[in-house]
Fold this sequence. Notes:
The structure holds three protein chains of three kinds. Chain A is α/β, with parallel strands linked by helices. Chain A has helices at 18-29, 43-52, 67-80, 96-105, 117-135; strands at residues 5-9, 33-36, 57-62, 87-92, 110-111. Chain A contains five helices and five strands, in the order βαβαβαβαβα. In chain A, α1 (18-29) packs across α5 and α2 (43-52) runs parallel beside α3. In chain A, 60% of the residues are buried. By secondary structure, chain C is an alpha/beta fold. Helices cover 51% and strands 12% of the residues of chain C. In chain C, α7 (174-187) links the parallel β6 and β7.
Amino acid sequence: MRPIRVLVAKPGLDGHDRGAKVVAAALRDAGMEVIYTGLHQTPEMIATAAIQEDVDVVGLSILSGAHMTLIPRVLDLLRADGRDDILVTGGGIIPREDMDALEARGTGRLFGPGTPTSELVDYIHDWFEARESQTA
Amino acid sequence: MTTAEMLELDRLREEVAQWRARFDAAKKRNALFANSGDVVDPVYTALDIAGDGSALELPGEYPFTRGIHSTGYRGKLWTMRQFAGFGTAPETNARYKYLLSHGQTGLSVAFDFPTLMGYDSDHPRSEGEVGKCGVAISSLADMETLFEGIPLDKVSTSMTINGPAVILFAFYVAAAEKQGVDIKELRGTIQNDILKEYMAQHAWVYPIEPALRLIVDNFAWSAEHVPLWNTISISGYHIREAGATAAQELAFTLADGFTYVERGLARGLDVDDFAPRLSFFWDIHNDFFEEIAKLRAARRIWARHLKERFGAKDPRSLIMRFHSQTAGVTLTAQQPMNNVVRVAYQAMAAVLGGTQSLHTNSMDETLALPTEQAVQVALRTQQVLAYETGVPNVADPLGGSYYVEALTDKLEQEAEALFEQIAEVGGVVHGLETGWLQRKIAESSSRQQWEIEQHRRTIVGVNEFVTEEGELTIPLLKVSEAAEREQRARMAQMRAARDNALVESRLTALREASRTDTNLMPFILDCARAYCTLYEIRAAMEEVFGAYREPVFF
Amino acid sequence: MPQSLEALVADFEAGKSAALARAVSIVENHRAGYDELMTRLHPHIGRAQRLGITGPPGAGKSTVTNLIVQSLRQEGHTVGVIAVDPTSPFTGGALLGDRVRMESVALDPGVYIRSMATRGSLGGLSARTAEVADVLDAFGFDRIIIETVGVGQTELDIARTADTTVVVLVPESGDSIQTLKAGVMEIADIFVVNKGDRPGADRLRNDIELMLGLRRGSAGGVPAHHGVQLKTFNPIRIAREAARAEDPERWTPPVLGTIASRGEGIDLLLAAVARHFRYLEMSGALKGRRRIRLRNQVAEVVAERVRNRLWDDPETNVWLDAQLDLLESGAATPFSVADELLRRSGPLLTGVDA
């Protein structure tokens, strides 16, 4: 089977990329091809990269509190290019009720601080397998 | 050493060896937790401390291992300085007044991410972030509001700002002028430590060389105009939070400090003119004794290098004054009440290590900005420590402890070894350009993450002692989206009211000065006084300096 | 052609970036419909100039690439970029981080950036890079830039894939000298000494020019070893003069200095690239290189088809299993079995039913 392609991006202006880098390394170690775009990404930059790279998954790490503005914009931009099949997941300092609202808006699962990376790896693997078996 | 002493030493060695044999034979478990992953001996004795007489050192005396004041905390307690800021300037102004009325003794400004990166609240890249993780300050007008009713000659203010630090500092100085305060009276600190931004925290604006030039410009200007102001807070905090070990935090931060001193000297400044205003900022992590030893070693190393390497003569150049903050990275989202306990132990380590000021984190900070109630518990933690435990009664109460002294020596040696490695890679600036420093931190960070996931490192409530019956919930602070709208409206008003021709001419003057070697502080201050905005000033210099581009190291 | 592929080709021809990205994925993974897609795109291939960027890690390849893209955009060219990073041999995963350096062109609609992992290929590119470059070519990009892994050893694939190969080196790096020894001299059409403000930059330029001059000198019949009269034979000057001359018969790589962090030297680099392309056209080398590329492509398709048709065929596998006893007993050898297998597979290999 081909490797899963994941874009790991940090939207917003905060510079805390430790989580994003730990996640990127963990996904690579789990056999995925991880495209890392660096800090301070706008939703437009994230969506453009996701489309050009034809990724299966976009993983967002956000700790700046701007999640309710930035994450829905990424979803909308992907949708506008017909790529609502891309899984948008991620984590950071996001209160439970905001996570619920974002998941209702169309993201995949969102993970809080302290989640073991293995949980995210398993989640992406399961999602990918389910999707492949549907399309096959 | 007399013959009697040598015999006594031999007897002690023999006793320890016998004890060690009994220990090794006994059934026991390994050390539960050592922060930096080092082996900790089961017991320390007189044999473990250096015979160099450092045990005879007194507080307030060179090399200041035991503290910078001979009076310890009896002369002056540490400053309880809670970092705060959110939403708009009027909201934060109200929080400051609340904190001051509850016995806090210094202010500490948390800026929002757009401000930290040098963007105005009405810049497109600020959308969604205005006032979220700190207060939005885009011009002198906002700074005036922030300190409305707080006389700036009466408080000391710490501002956590780096990339655009000199701009925010200029707003502060201009606000003081507006209050009619003599700026010679201003007391406080701007963080202004750009090297650790490239290393760990990533709120940069300009490339390394022009950024260092602005810092030295400020050293020179401040020595003359605001002599009581700390021009920099050389910070280990963010390096540690990014995953460094205690020894790395110690060594990389001090190496940054030495780099600033070298740059000041290269400008032709006298070390004793600017070194007394350099201050430090440490992260206080979980490993209690290691943290205390780290602070003791830091003072000793700084004093020795300033004296022996840089030829400082003024005793104020030799003493390391520092702020401490309990480690945000140790807080857990799971069972957040446990954080109160973590913070209390860390705060005690900071005080036993002799900190000059302290921020204690609030229990809810991994979830959101702290609520007023959580901030109050954090402040009360310091007050209990200061007034109920008796800990501040004696200067350096752990001085002479075999373990703490041995650990202090060990951290000093590790730091010196790391200084040598940094020199081998061509110094701090070159180490940043090639990514050597960033990679070192990333390696430590990955190792810690791996240890946690492998259960080699216990985090109570996260990988052990997990409660199944749902998380304890605590109320969270929500910053309303209205803050952003209000701030944008105020910016529009300010832009309409100011003298825009003056703004243009001041920005042009700054841009032109940036092309020369002249000190830029007066030009930035003139821009601030004319109500040029943060981004306008940033952009004027960026046209000449360019922007820093992120290198990627995993 | 299935409907979905038809729709994809229509979107591709309409210039939609998402369709291009999908097409690249189909080709990269040799997914169903790959050969039909390539067949459809074939008439549109061959217009773009292909530029390869290689060199050791830390030389600043991505920064140089980014600056070249910016300059090409200012000249009005559209640009496709393929950035290759290594796949971990242990996990099969990869971290592709080259986009970070290209942030300033990330939102330019005239630029398309695609990160690729090597997926087990050892030549500095992925086995599919050349085909992905064909896809970008068919999409209509004027220029295609291919940035290699840069492990510094066997980056030879790039010379087969690109029209012009730029080797980026940096001073004060032992890697650079190793790279020169490892056969980079032969693949470079242009040398760039990046970080030209660092100590050792002039020395590195001289070292490269010396090697080039000696090579040229010896090829020209001048003794390059004993008894060299440096007064009459100065290899560095020979290399410099040869690199400046517009000689339609022979290309001598120029050695250029850049300071990518400040954007310095990129205009000269682009001028050299343009000059090299003129040389390729005038000398007929371009045509020759492209014909070799087509030939190699056919060989690769043959190899893949033979492999797939044989080993996807259940009957062939059953037959081979049945030979194992003979092989084990020594009655047959791997060579005789292989010959027999190819003989009996004729119709299977040609795709024509017997």
